[in-house]
Prior knowledge:
Helix content: 55-70%
Strand content: 15-25%
Shape: rod-shaped
Distance between the termini: 13 Å
Amino acid sequence: MSSPKAPKTPDYAKAAIAQGHISNPDIYTPGGSQEVTWKGNNPTIRQTLSPEQQALYDQKTQQQQGLSNLGLLNVGNLQDVYSDSFNEDGSLDRQRVEDSLYNRSVSRLDPQFQRQEDQLRTRLTNQGLNPNDEAWQNELKDFNNSRNDAYEGARTQSVLQGGTAQQQALAAALQMRQQPLQEQAQLMSLSQGQMPEFQPYQAPDYQGAFNNQSNFQLGKYNADSAQYSNNQNGLLTLGALGTAALMMSDRRLKKDIVFLENIDGFNIYSFKYIWDEKEQIGVMADEVEKILPEAVKTVRGYKMVNYGMLPWIH
């Protein structure tokens, strides 16, 4: 009797593909359908919306496209704010603010001091003085000093006011910068699309299929090995008994007969005697008689086999 062979390598890929077919059925809903077609082991998934849902989806896509285009136009506003409010290094042009405040003060001081100088020259002339007189030059010097002081005061004031103006302008500029940024973020959030939802594709579980099939085949191998061991033990027992006595082997005295295998031309069976439910293993006397008649005896009309004479017992 030969021992059972180890199972072949399981075809887990085939089992996993079958599992993939089962796990990814075609789906049909009022909102649309999802169909899965296979070309060999490669799936193709096609999602189709119902006409009503497709119309709504197309409309929403157009709205999103319009919002996206509006967002692109808003980028120009961002560029304008950056270029108009700040220098190349990103800082506010404070000198420009101070010069603007100073020029504003000078525009008021210039005509005022021009009138005062004209009045001073007229008064000095009426006093009988001329530009070369020391008194004339002293009066004009005092006047120029007073005018210079006024202009210096205007410059100092413009610097002080420029600091305050800079802070105010910076706050305003930052607000101007934040507004288009906030608008841009709002437009982009509104333009986010939503795809219709279907059951996600479930990849075949190759590892699980491999484990299941391997466990099944390993269990079958172990069961066959156990059956083989039982058969061997039974035959050895029969051989030991056969050396001392004949064994009842007439087919008429047996039931539940099942063929197991052939050894050296002799068929081996499992069976039960008609008076017992214990499973036995052995040969049929009528078959042995055709091959080795000297091993078969007839007692009271029933055939018996001397297992000690069978060649594979030794």
